[in-house]
Amino acid sequence: xxxxxxxxxxxxxxxxxxxxxxxxYALKRQCxxxxxxxxxxxxxxxxxxxxxxxxxxxxxxxxxGEPSSRKIYRITEKGAKSLDSFILAPPADAxxxxxxxxxxxxxxxxxxxxxxxxxxxxxxxxxxMQQLRLIGVQRRKIHRLPVDAFVxxxxxxxxxxxVRAELTWLDEVTRRLRERLGDPAHS
Amino acid sequence: MIEFRxxxxxxxxxxxxxxxxxxxxFCCPPKSFWAIMGPSGSGKSTILHLIAGLTKPMSxxxxxxxxxxxxxxxxxxxxxxxxxxxxxxxTFNLLPFLTVEQNVGMPLVLDGIPHREVAxxxxxxxxxxxxxxxxxxxxxxxxxxxxxxxAIARALVIRPAIVLADEPTGNLDRxxxxxxxxxxQDVNERMGVTVLLVTHDxxxxxxxxxxxxxxxxKLAQDMPLPGS
Lengths: 187, 228
Prior knowledge:
The complex is a heterodimer. By secondary structure, chain A is mainly alpha-helical. Chain A is built from seven helices and three strands, in the order H-E-H-H-E-E-H-H-H-H. Chain A has a three-stranded antiparallel beta sheet with strand order 1-3-2. The longest helix of chain A has 32 residues, at 150-181. Chain A starts with a helix and ends in a 6-residue tail after the last helix. Chain B is an alpha/beta fold. Chain B has a domain at 97-159.
């Protein structure tokens, strides 16, 4: 999943779920649980986004009180409004461009390079299969958690469908390249 | 251990000759979970038939637990299937006039196992697939996913070393397919049964620790899928 503004609102949304405020560590834990590891965040990234949200006055920092000196983050009225309009706005994600790197390689590789192209496709396929495996592991892990994972499951379905589409496309590219190569045999 | 040494199998002759398996070699260690993936007609099912001794190779050798299956008589191969290999098919192949428990117990009855032992092992197998509550039902009263779980219990009742699963999710919707695959994975992980799964579906192939992609009977790609 790509980042950008999405992560900004994801963190804002998680802060909003904690009416009493939330500290950075708990926020990271909640991110992992709610976003299902789709966004693997480290503390540095979380604090960078939180600083940005604070600067924009979408969240505020309050003291956690003694004995802890940790900062607690709470959503502001402006933050709640911003989150609302984000939720209601149509998604800004553009459809993915043609399979970027592989497409460019196919475009510029001459017919003499076709066997290498087929190997590249195999390599790509193995990566996607590995992704499917991790998605499956993730799905089963979430299934065992005692949380309502409605959205996470939808995200997992989406990720799985996307990888499936890439694999189908790779099979089609392989078939068409072989036709072009005039090689009925397979690797 | 399942080992293929330069195995070929053809069907037909002349212009209609089909190379279902073409000089295939691999060695699948005990307790593995491997998937064989490929388009329809790529020879996937023939590989399982060769392992189970349902068909013989034209050349090469197939070893199951160190024994050359191709050299076995059909009677010996039948004993191998009845005692060591559980088979799960796309069409569940349950006998419609028998109850769930009678279907599951059938391989043991055919093998002459005493009634008490059959009852005990049927219960054990139905517990594994979580179908004990349906023991007295007939297959027609079960959903597709439930029927496949019963078929898996029938494969497990012999306490097999190997389960061969040929498109076990082919007749199921996605959710039921996943439940069946979760179960097959459990069987491999908890019971240490070697599983060889044939599927054209990459999502289900990705349950396996290693995926062999077969195209026109040849090994097109060998993909290890390391851990979780």
